[in-house]
Design brief:
40% strand; four-stranded mixed beta sheet; 2,3-Dihydroxybiphenyl 1,2-Dioxygenase, domain 1; alpha/beta; single chain; globular
Length: 121
């Protein structure tokens, strides 16, 4: 068994697609219409997100998506360059991990986690 995708119900499909393409470098893999919902899969290597629009959107609270990254500071720089502030963090955890949280276009919480030391140390 392996991870296939994480699904997010969104208000405006094209806005969410643009957000994940611009900030996470995901590309559109597939589009389909199913049970009155428009669905778009975005991916990059082993990562896949399913964006769903047009159904009974009931965005969940208390969940988040976490992406492991090589360098949290690079993510912070990208978001700062576009005028987007962190929702929480950055934090340095006791185990040496570094993390920062942002909010997506549909109030979804996106965590970026660096678990390895940076190569430039």
């Amino acid at each position: 068994m392996r991870f296939h995708h994480f699904a997010i119900e969104v208000k405006e499909l094209e806005t969410s697609i643009a957000f994940y393409q611009k900030y996470l470098g995901l590309h559109e893999e597939d589009r389909l219409h199913f049970n009155k919902e428009n669905i778009v899969f975005l991916s990059n290597y082993d990562l896949r997100i399913e964006l769903i629009s047009g159904g009974q959107q009931n965005n969940s609270q208390g969940i988040h998506i976490c992406f492991e990254v090589n360098n949290v500071q690079e993510i912070i720089t990208i978001f700062n360059e576009h005028g987007i502030s962190a929702l929480e963090g950055p934090y340095k955890l006791n185990n040496g991990w570094e993390t920062v949280f942002y909010e997506g276009p549909d109030n979804e919480v996106i965590e970026f986690l660096q678990i390895r030391e940076k190569a430039d140390h």
